[in-house]
Design brief:
Blueprint lengths: L9 H12 L2 H13 L3 H29 L3 H47 L6 H9 L14 H18 L7 H24 L6 H7 L9 H15 L5 H6 L8 H34 L12 H14 L3 H38 L3 H16 L7 H31 L1 H4 L5 E2 L2 E2 L1 H25 L5 H30 L1
Antiparallel strand pairs: 1-2
Helix pairs in contact: 1-7, 1-11, 1-13, 2-9, 2-11, 2-12, 2-13, 3-9, 3-11, 3-15, 3-17, 4-6, 4-13, 4-14, 4-15, 4-18, 5-12, 6-13, 6-14, 7-11, 7-13, 8-11, 12-13, 13-14, 15-17, 15-18
Length: 488
């Protein structure tokens, strides 16, 4: 691997990985989950899950990319042949799908940063978001019309992504993430400090950290914890593998992944503090019980309906300033996530098809952009409701289990890496990865499948159709490439 295709520094690699991990899940979803699940009662098991599952899986994906110097499909093929490549292609197809709606959701943040700066968000934020911006239809079968503001914002995100990714990783992703992620961390920290000085804002810490221990007995809390963790760290999709293949020989993967996990949690925690401070201020000034402020657990309704309404309570000028800062932070979280998703796809296209990096990035963005068109239509929110439980739920659990079985159990090169050993004994992270992680993932997967097959509707039909088509495409791609190698 040439010097141009490796990270310039370990710090740049870590910032890029944090940019990959930090996304809407950190700025919006984390706070919503904490609010929904009893404050500190969510934080306690989340920290446990991060230690027992998140960090070990991050290290595993990092070691796979670092040792095998290959993106996910090639790495799977190296260890498990054609069957392994099927799991790799399944992850790539999942990334294509996720990229299709993630690039659109990042476009939401672009549009709302502009709307906030211009002061054009009306008092009825729900009608504005659902009817005028999204132009939401009532049924998933009613496509509705194409939202021009969303389309234009999505195109802007796609073009910006292309210009960053056609460069090598150190001149593109590393340079941008090394600027954007410290900016995001600084802004959110200042935001969290400032809201403490608002009337009632300091009470947000009490609501945020005080645990309702009775919630720990609720199985849904634990499901939300592990779902949030997988979603936040982008586990099971090969994204970390794709970034880690560009590391140099001296990179300390274990230390880097520990920094990534802590950085990801820090952004989530600080964002939560800022948001809870805002909610406490509204509770104090408007006389609304804190537990009654949010009535929806939809991440994007909270981000684009509830918070624009909250910002109006700060007055015209301050509300605009806070709105711009808030949505710009969401944009940073989104665009760095888009970089990692498209990089993961392009890396596999480049190595499996033998095309140049520029062509691979171009093809990948065109494919993601084509899928994105469906999420610019009026039924986009319904399609998301149908696909997300599979693409970012069941499928990611399958991907996580496959990674552990193939690489930690079957790959001698990966499982013998010094990161897993302390002398002749396995480290605690290695033990968690070997025994705890697969057990927990299997239990959650069985629970998800049991819930899925308890009933059937159109939404479940769509997501299982996606899974069937993804499996068929994965098998076809892995079989086709294997034949090409035989004839070569």
């Amino acid at each position: 691997m040439s010097n141009d295709s490796t990270w310039k520094s370990q710090a740049g690699f870590v910032w890029s990985l944090i940019g990959s991990a930090v996304g809407f899940a950190n700025v919006l979803s984390f706070s919503a989950q904490v609010y929904k699940n009893g404050g500190g009662a969510f934080l306690i098991p989340y920290c446990m899950a991060l230690f027992m599952l998140g960090i070990p899986l991050l290290i595993l994906e990092g070691i796979v990319g670092h040792r095998l110097k290959a993106p996910l499909v090639q790495a799977y093929g190296h260890v498990a042949g054609k069957i392994g490549k099927m799991f790799g292609w399944l992850a790539v197809i999942a990334c294509l799908t996720i990229g299709g709606f993630y690039i659109v959701l990042t476009g939401y943040a672009v549009a709302y940063t502009y709307f906030s700066a211009m002061g054009t968000i009306p008092a009825d934020t729900q009608d504005f978001f659902l009817n005028r911006f999204l132009q939401t239809t009532k049924e998933i079968t009613d496509f509705g019309t194409l939202s021009i503001p969303i389309l234009l914002s999505t195109i802007a995100v796609a073009v910006g992504t292309w210009f960053v990714l056609v460069r090598n990783v150190k001149d593109g992703i590393e340079k941008i993430c090394s600027i954007f992620m410290p900016i995001l961390a600084t802004i959110m920290t200042l935001f969290a400090v400032v809201v403490c000085f608002l009337p009632g804002g300091l009470e947000g810490w009490s609501y945020y950290l005080k645990p309702d221990f009775s919630r720990l007995a609720d199985p849904s809390l634990w499901r939300d914890v592990f779902g949030q963790l997988f979603f936040s760290l982008s586990l099971g999709l090969g994204i970390i593998v794709g970034y880690s293949r560009h590391t140099g020989k001296t990179t300390n993967i274990g230390r880097a992944m520990l920094y990534v996990a802590l950085g990801d949690f820090a952004v989530s925690f600080i964002s939560g503090a800022a948001i809870f401070g805002c909610l406490a201020h509204i509770s104090y000034t408007q006389g609304i019980p804190f537990a009654s402020i949010l009535t929806s657990d939809s991440t994007f309704e909270i981000g684009f309906i509830v918070f624009p309404h909250i910002f109006k309570c700060f007055g015209p000028l301050l509300g605009q300033v806070i709105g711009v800062i808030f949505f710009f932070c969401i944009f940073i979280a989104g665009i760095t996530g888009v970089f990692s998703i498209v990089e993961s796809i392009a890396g596999n296209v480049e190595t499996q098809s033998g095309v140049s990096r520029k062509r691979a990035v171009t093809y990948s963005i065109l494919a993601v952009g084509t899928i994105a068109l469906f999420f610019c239509m009026g039924n986009a929110s319904h399609i998301l409701d149908a696909l997300v439980p599979m693409v970012m739920g069941t499928n990611m659990l399958v991907g996580g289990l496959a990674l552990i079985i193939v690489f930690h159990y079957l790959s001698k090169e990966v499982k013998s890496d010094p990161v897993w050993w302390s002398g002749k004994r396995l480290t605690l992270f290695a033990l968690c990865l070997k025994y705890v992680a697969p057990t927990v993932l299997a239990i959650i997967l069985v629970g998800n499948l049991t819930q899925e097959f308890a009933s059937f509707d159109l939404y479940k039909g769509i997501r299982w159709s996606w899974f069937a088509l993804a499996l068929l495409a994965s098998y076809t791609l892995s079989a086709r490439h294997s034949k090409q190698l035989q004839h070569a």
